[in-house]
Each structure stands twice: as structure tokens, then as C-alpha cells.
Write a structure and sequence with these properties.
0% strand; single chain; mainly alpha
């Protein structure tokens, strides 16, 4: 009987990437709960107290950015991201694997682009403040930067697992 467990370095990489994804999942979950609560406060303030809390919109934008970009990175890690699988699913096995590799390479490039351009944008905007909440404007693009880096990291993990024969994604034959 052959042992299908990955070697120690791959297992360690999997453990680290799973922990990062779990942290991002928890952070996006908390962000979603906070977003719901502050919009509840907005409605209560506007219609019951007749005093609209003006800071809610600015905080909501930060939370939506966090949810969107960290959630997208987790989707890449868990292979639940949006991808066009129609061609891949009807292709022969050898070509299907090629499509998966191409998708991973394109995702890695996209993650790298988000990381590099997001870093420039975050640095550029860091010196000004978001009105009403007085935090650096660069916080709006920080989730884009971090999400891009995580997309790159998670995709490189997929490529490493594929190269070593330990990729367990269901769309690879």
C-alpha cells in the first residue's frame, strides 16, 4: 500500500496556508457581522433618534473592501473562485491539467498585479485622512494589497502542490 500523504515540507506549507485562510475567513466573518450591526445602528439612528450617524458609510466601505478582497483570496485557496470551467470540464484529461495550470498562472499574475499596484495606491493615499473617521485613506486600498498578496501566495501553493504531485483539487485528473 502506498502512502499518499504529502512530504513534510508540503504538509507544513498546507498547514500554514490553511491557517492563513482560516484567519481571513474569521476576519471576513467578523467584518460582515460588524457591517450588519452598524447598518442596524444607521437605521435606528435615522428613523428612531432622528440623528443619522454619518461615520457608518465610511466604516462600511472599509469593511466591504476587507470582505471582498480577503474573501476572494480564501476562494482561491479553497478553489471556489469564479473560473470558467466549461472548456476545462469537456477537455481530455491531459488538456484539462494544462487549463488548470494556465488558470493558476493567470491568477498568480493577477495577484501579483493587485499586490504591486495596491501597494503603490496604499502608499500614495496614506498621507490623507478619511473624513468623519479620521483614519488614513490608505486603509481603503490595504485590503486590495493584502488580498492580492494572498491570491499570489495561495496560487503559488497550488502550483507547488501540482508540481510535486500532491494537488487534490477535484478538477484535476
Amino acid at each position: 500500500m502506498t502512502d499518499s500523504r504529502p512530504p513534510a515540507p508540503i504538509a507544513l506549507m498546507n498547514t500554514i496556508l490553511d491557517a492563513i485562510a482560516a484567519f481571513c475567513r474569521a476576519l471576513t466573518g467578523v467584518s460582515l457581522v460588524v457591517l450588519t450591526v452598524i447598518f442596524g445602528w444607521l437605521v435606528f439612528g435615522r428613523y428612531v433618534l432622528n440623528a443619522t450617524p454619518t461615520w457608518v458609510e465610511q466604516v462600511a466601505l472599509l469593511l466591504v473592501m476587507t470582505i471582498a478582497f480577503l474573501g476572494a483570496a480564501v476562494g482561491v485557496h479553497e478553489n471556489t473562485h469564479l473560473s470558467v470551467a466549461a472548456f476545462r470540464n469537456v477537455a481530455p484529461n491531459w488538456l484539462r491539467t494544462g487549463f488548470v495550470i494556465l488558470t493558476d498562472i493567470l491568477l498568480a499574475g493577477f495577484g501579483l498585479l493587485l499586490l504591486l499596484q495596491g501597494t503603490k495606491l496604499t502608499i500614495f493615499k496614506w498621507g490623507s485622512m478619511i473624513p468623519l473617521i479620521q483614519v488614513p485613506e490608505g486603509l481603503r486600498s490595504l485590503p486590495l494589497t493584502i488580498g492580492g498578496g494572498l491570491i499570489l501566495l495561495f496560487t503559488l501553493g497550488h502550483l507547488i502542490r501540482m508540481a510535486t504531485g500532491h494537488d487534490d483539487r477535484s478538477d484535476i485528473i
